[in-house]
Amino acid sequence: MFVEHAIHLLHEAAYGTLATHSAILPGYPYATVVPYVPDETQRPVVCLSALAEHTKNLLADSRVSLSVLQPEATDIQTAHRLTVVGEAERFEPSPAFLARYLRYEPGAEQLLALDFMFFRLGTRKIRFIEGLGQMGWLDKADLDAVGQLSGETETTLVREVSRVVPAGVRVLGIDCYGVDYAAGALRKRFRFPSQPLLPETILDAALNAAPGLS
What we know:
By secondary structure, the chain is of the alpha+beta class. It is 27% helix and 37% strand.
């Protein structure tokens, strides 16, 4: 159950605190808030400027963590939160992934003409906290066992569901656990009642949910 809740939180939050090893102050952590987008394997992807301090840190030492808090939480002690611990890997996005990333972060399009680069956070462990006394560790194997959709399948699903959502709603992404969408400026997530779903059943579930997305 932990892994499902952790996946939902990774999708519901749009920002996290990225902690890197400081290159100019060896031994000290350097933390900064960044937007991120989970990829099809539930690994967070960040798009960073080459001039940023945290980017220089990552290029020198790939070990990293990303801390995420439940959106609009008012009581931190009872809120859902997690920390992803792993190594950041720089990569060149495919056209399909780039289109997906820009669905989540459309404002990043103008940055891509500059010196921005993509990093995927390869997950070694996740510390997930559901509230007081409710916590545990997830391993890489837990994420590897999660059902995945190919980029082509997700693109098809997004296109089909986008045709029936209410006006003002944008479908961002779909996975075996839910639908990510934006209503106005807010990122939201619809969790499938039964999860994870098999790829062949996701379209019907998403289409049934679409009229109620708001």
